[in-house]
Each structure stands twice: as structure tokens, then as C-alpha cells.
Amino acid sequence: MAAGSAIQIPTRLPLLLTHESVLLPGSTMRTSVDSPRNMQLVRSRLLKGTSLRSTIIGVIPNTSDPTSDCDDLPNLHRIGTAALAVQVVGSNWPKPHYTLLVTGLCRFQVLQLLKEKPYPVAEVQQLDRLEQFTNGHKSEEELGELSEQFYKYAVQLVEMLDMSVPAVAKLRRLLDNLPREALPDILTSIIRTTNQEKLQILDAVRLEERFKMTIPLLVRQIEGLKLLQKTRKSKQDDDKRVVTIRPNRRIGHGSITEDEEEEEDHDDVVMLEKKIRTSSMSEQALKVCLKEIKRLKKMPQSMPEYALTRNYLELMVELPWNKSTKDRLEIRAARIVLDNDHYAMEKLKKRVLEYLAVRQLKNNLKGPILCFVGPPGVGKTSVGRSIAKTLGREFHRIALGGVCDQSDIRGHRRTYVGSMPGRIINGLKTVGVNNPVFLLDEVDKLAKSLQGDPAAALLEVLDPEQNHSFTDHYLNVAFDLSQVLFIATANTTATIPPALLDRMEVIQVPGYTQEEKIQIAHRHLIPKQLEQHGLTPQQIQIPQVTTLGIITRYTREAGVRALDRKLGAICRAVAVKVAEGQHKEAKPDRAEMGEEEDCKEHVTEDSKPESISDTADLALPPEMPILIDFHALKDILGPPMYDMEVSERLNQPGVAIGLAWTPLGGEIMFVEASRMDGEGQLTLTGQLGDVMKESAHLAISWLRSNAKRYQLTNASGSFDLLDNTDIHLHFPAGAVTKDGPSAGVTIVTCLASLFSGRLVCSDVAMTGEITLRGLVLPVGGIKDKVLAAHRAGLKRIIIPQRNEKDLEEIAEHVRQDLTFVLAGCLDEVLNAAFDGGFAVKARLEHLNSKL
Ligand code: ADP
User: Does the pLDDT value for residue 295 go beyond 90?
Assistant: First the structure.
């Protein structure tokens, strides 16, 4: 920019028409070019021209060029700025356009338009920066005061800006070096002005006029800056005040006395230190805590570590290092508590009492951890709670299901963001004593992951040799867990890691029989539900037959949890009736009356409530107690969910009932077989494990090798059972994975039925592993399996001979309902499974057919 010296522009200038921006002499502007005329100008003149002259163009502001090429040229603004094109940048996105960097030289006036296409060219007259003005500084003298005033404002404005910014410092220097007449244009393009204002300045050809018009713009900007600085300052003051509040208090200004101030200021940290010193934590812990508190005192509160350290110290203070409850153990009382809380479970109660007795005799017991293993809802957790009650200890349950990170047990190191102690230490903090009963629920559902093996961490917790100095990663000091009584629960031992299992004494808690369930319901569950729903026995009566109905038709479980839920549903429904009845003084309740009538039909002699009178007054609220019969059951719980389907499903050959054990208790399992023409293939469906598949192959092989003996033939009468025959074996409940060897005898029976065409007895169920030689080997879970068969109403149960000892565990009344067949080989199984025996009958049939 040749500021200060005269400029001579050509008399003919190509014109660039700008719409949104105004270029003033002495300033630089970047403008986007995309209209056809302007594009032509850039292409033909700027990009192709070679001389310096060809880079000088006339910029005419405030004129929008039509987008279409053929349209007439719009009216042009009279005055424009001659400019030097400094840079051209082309781009094709989002549409073809150029970006032009132009520097304004001087004003000009359009005298005559010489041509319009492809871009306008005009004859122009230069209006300023002519030689006669720049020489002799005539204008400065003439303008005198006006120019001086302008200069002062300009200096004031620039000095209000941050002079440490290089561009601002440069501008300050320019104010002194540039000729005064150039300043209005330059400053107008720097300060905040609208296009309209810039246009007015452009149009102000006379210098005096330009100065006059620019001064108010400068003043406006100065005022704006002043206001801005004022608000900024007040905000800074506020900030400073916040920061200085604490120091001021320390010095003891204002009304706060020295003592109060001292107390308040040392506040939490001092209190914390006091607490640490008076707490009964171990020596090692005290040392660590004092070191930490020293660090804390030096730390600014805003540091993230401050909160972290404080939380740590607060936890350390809260932990029950030396606080414990006093055991009040008396075996006789314990027996009463256990008996009162739980019906049946004799074996479990006996073992628990033994355990407690040893504890009573020997104060510090380093024995194995008790682990209750059994299906859900059999009272494992509630026995744990009872143990805590008998000992007078706090109870805390730690659910381990799905825990797959060892930090869950052992805590995170304090270096992690969001670190926290593990569940053991957290539990101790919650109960507030160091000798609670901790129930480690579902240890069989611990999982492994990349974050380490939580079971391994539990080992340290449970091992009496190690747990007196259990070190949680978060605490980083040892905590004595030897006073804690750990009890574990699990559904199965199969998935408990062996090392963990080794440290535990497993006590099996089998499922309940129907009779036991009825007793549990009437002694424990129903009274509990009544209390929870605010009902009294005078308002609701559930006879034992109804309970049996719920057990057999609405639940299929080893425990009593679903039964408890159903009883809850009944209580809720009755609560509504009772509440309604209290308001319905005069209105008869027809539905209720109908229900009561039904009740009368179903109630057995011993459970018939005396309060139901035949002369029930229709004008009174529902007769109390409301009796729950089968009709009411259906109303409340819906149609029965389980029907006795056993006999229906055994009405054709190729079906047999097996007994399976699952972590949820025993279950009856149907095995179905069918045959079809084929090439001797065996298809197995029902999500079977490898062991079960092998059992199926074993069964087929045994039957094939004994086909003649039992006169078993395929469809075409051949003893080669797989000759031109495919067999399909299916184990229903296909969504459930099944495995284990105990289905062996059932598969043999099912296939024997298929090939002999005879029906298996509908009331027989069986379990047992088989060998290729036809022996029956013992299996596990006999008690659960027998209970399942009993629940399903089956009468005869075939079990391996060597499982005879397991029958002792089964309650007498269940045994009386059932016939047990102890089978040593498959002959005995088949004989017991078919009415009239298998082999004999088969031979007779064969003889008959020959006749
Ligand atoms: P688990 O821990 O075995 O899954 P819970 O201990 O949670 O089962 O028991 C479920 C419910 O059944 C509890 O309300 C419990 O009181 C009750 N319950 C289970 N067995 C008995 C029993 N033998 N006597 C009394 N109530 C029982």
C-alpha cells in the first residue's frame, strides 16, 4: 500500500461488483466471487493478465450482479474504490467460485460505462490521493483542528486495546506514520461499523466531510469499550472477593472472634485428625492416616486429590476397627430360634447347631466356612439371617452373582479415578461392627474376566489363616476379618471354583415335599403375608386344600418362593375386598356371595370355617373370613398353569419319563422317540450336552445287540434296528440345555417302547447311568429327583441299586407314597417300566404272532 504517496490509476477500469462488503481505500478485504460477470473478470483479466496494470480493478459496492449472464447490468453505485488484486484462490466446492484478496487504493467516480460484457469496463475519474493533494500538506493545515481531534480519538481508542498484542502496537505506530487524510478510511474499516456507514464514508469525497462523519463512529466505539471494561472489572473484583474471603477470616476481621474463627477454619481437617487419633484403628493404619492428613493440610482444596484423600480418611475413621457386638450364644435358645423360623430342614438345622455349639465351646473358631447348596427359595438366605439372630450379630448379605472383577471384592487402588473399597470393606462400614454375619450369596455365579478372578480374591477373605490381615487395595492397610462369620450360598457346587469349594463345608438343602410346603405355607408364609397386607385370620382363610392346589397347579419349584408370591397375590386381592367391604355398608356384593357359595362346595370337613353361615345377610359387607377356594383361586391367579399331563403324554409308544437334576431342584423329563425310513441315522434334539449324546448312542448300541433277545424289530421286521431306519430322539423343553449320564435308562426304555410298540407305564419315572454291558450305575441328586416325581404324582420310581442309601434321606411320608425299584441292570429296568414286565411279555407276543 502506497499510503502517503500519490497514486495514479488507469482511466479505464474493469469493474468488480460487490454486494455485501464495502472496500475503503487503504484497507484490505477478502471477497467471494461467483456471479458470471465477476468470474469472467477474474478469469480473463486477473488470471490471464501479465502486467501490474492488469491487477488494478474498480470495486463498486452495494450492487448485486444478477446470477444469469444475459441479464442487463444493474444500476451501478456512483463511487467505487480502485483496488489492487493481491491474491486469487479458486475452488469448485460447493460451486465454482474465486476468493479474491483486494487492497483499496483510492476513490474513483464512474464517468461512462464502456462495455457490459463479458464484464463491465468503465471510464473513471480518480477522486483522491492525487498529486496536488498529497504535496504540500495543504489539507492538514486546512483541516487543522478537525484532523487533530480525530487523531486524538484514534489514539485513545487504540490505547484502550491490549497493547501487548503485536497488531495493536503496530496500529499505534501507524497512527503516527500515516498521513492524516488516510486515517478516516483505515479506522472506519477497522472499527465496528455497518456496511451502510462504510458506504457513507466512501461517498464522502471531501476530506473534511469524511473526518466529520468518522469522529462519531470513533466516539461510539470508545464508549462501547469503556462499558465493556467496566463490566469486566466488576466481575474480576467479584472473583477476587471470593478468593480473599478465607484469608480475611484468618486475620480476624469483622465480628468473628478469634476462637470461633480458629474452630471454623481448622474445621473439618482438624476434626478429622482428632477422630483419627481417637479412633481405635491399628497402629499401621494410624501411621498411614496421620501421614495422609499431613498431606491433606498442605493441599489446596481445589485439587482433585484433596477430595480423594478426605474420602479415604473418612472411611478409615468410620471402619469398625475395634467395635464389635457381644455374642449371646446359647445353644438351647439357638435351637428354638431356628425351629421357630424354619419348618423342616432338619439336617441343615442340626449341622448349624453343631457349628454354633463348637463356637460356644471354643471362642475363636478357625473352621471351614458353611456353604448352603440347594435350589432357589428353600430358605438358604433366611437360615443365614436366623444364625445372625441367634448369635445377636449384625447381618449383611453380599450378592456375588455376576461379579467378575476382583476389585469388587478387594477394592480399587486409590490411584484410579473413582476408586472405592471392595464389597467386604463396604459391608463392614455399613454394619459398623467387625463381627457381623456375612452371607456371600450365590458363590456359584462368580464369573471370571480380564479384570481378574474374584474367586481368587475371595480365597483370601475366607481363609482363616489369612483373613486376619486382609488387605483391601483401597485401604492399603490390613484389616482383621477373623471375627466375621462367613456363610456362603449356592445353587450348585459344580460351578464353584475348586479352591474355594475346598475351604467350605457344603451342606445340601434339598427341595421340599408337598406336605412340607403346605406346612411352611401355613406356619410361616401365610402369617407373614397377612401381616404385610394388614389382614387378620378373621378376614381371610386359606384351607390346606387350596394351598395344595396352589402348589400343584400354580407352581412347579423345589423351594417356596413362587408359592410365597402367589399367596401374596391372594392377600392383595382379599385386601381389596376387605377395604371395599368396610365402605360398602349397605350394598350387597354379589360376586362375593357367589364366591362364598362356591367355597362351601369345596371346603373339606376339617377346614370349613365356622363363620360362614347359610343365612348370609345380603345387605352386609362380604362375610368374614373370606375363604379362598379353587374358584377364588382361578379368579385371582388365573387358570391353572400346570396340569397333570403325565398320563396324556404317555399314550403312545416311544415316550418315557426320566428324572433330571437341575440347580433349581429335581424335575421330571419326558424323552420322546420316533422312527422313519432312512439310512440308520440317529438325530438328537433338545440342546443336549456331549455326555447325554453319548448315553443315546450307548442305549442304541445296547438295544441293537439285544434286539433278538427282546424281539425288537424295525418297521420292516428286521432285528437290525437301524436297517433302513432313522431314529429321532427328542428331549422336550428344547430351550433348556441338558447334560449328564443319568438319562441313560430312560433312553433305553423309550427306544424299547418304540421298537416293541408297547406303552411305558404312565406312573413310572426312572434315572440311572448305563454301560454298554447293560449295567445300571448310580447317579446323584436322588432326593431332589424323587421329590420331583412325587410332585408330579408318579408312583413307581426306578433308581440304580447302588443309590439305595440315598432313600434314607427322603421323608417317610413321601417314601410311603412311592414304590421304588432298585435296578442293577437294564433287564430289571425294562421289566419294571412296562406293565407285566418286558422280556417275558415280548416273548409271548412273539410266540403269539407266530401262531
Ligand atoms: P434362598 O436363599 O434359598 O433362595 P430364601 O431364604 O430367600 O431362599 O427363602 C425364600 C422364602 O421362603 C423366605 O421368605 C423364607 O422365609 C421362606 N422359607 C424357605 N424355607 C422355609 C422354611 N423351611 N421355613 C419357613 N420359611 C421358609
Answer: no
> Does 343 contact ligand 1 (Cβ within 6 A)?
yes
User: What's residue 131's pLDDT?
Assistant: 63
Between helix 183-190 and helix 195-203 the angle, nearest 10°, is: 170
At 646, is the pLDDT very low, low, confident or very high (cuts 50, 70, 90)? low
Burial of 523 (0-12, 13-18, 19+ CB in 10 A): middle
DSSP state of 471: E
Query: Is 345 near ligand 1, meaning CB less than 6 Å away?
Result: yes
Give the ligand 1 atom nearest the CA of 374. Answer: 3
Closest CA to 798 of 845, 773, 834: 834
Three cell numbers written together for 331: 445353644
* 338 alpha carbon – ligand 1 mean position (Å): 12
- Point out the annotated binding site for ATP: 374-381
Question: Does residue 225 surpass a pLDDT of 70?
Answer: yes
For the cut 50, the answer to whether the pLDDT of residue 586 exceeds it is: no
Pick the CATH number of 512-578+623-643 from 2.60.40.1180, 2.60.40.10, 3.40.30.10, 1.10.8.60: 1.10.8.60
CA distance 419 to 411: 7
CB atoms within 10 A of CB 205: 12
Q: Where are the domains of the chain?
A: 12-126, 146-225, 279-318, 331-508, 512-578+623-643, 655-833
Mean pLDDT calculated for residue range 569-587: 76
Report which DSSP code applies to 444. Answer: G
How far, in Å, CA of 191 to CA of 211, rounded?
A: 15
More confident residue, 317 or 70: 317
Question: What is the number of the ligand 1 atom nearest to the C-alpha of 341?
Answer: 25
Q: Is the pTM of this model over 0.70?
A: no
Bond before 368 cis per omega within 30 degrees: no
742 is catalytic: yes
Percent of the chain with pLDDT over 90: 18
Verify whether residue 287 is a known catalytic residue: no
Distance 273 CA to ligand 1 centre (A): 46
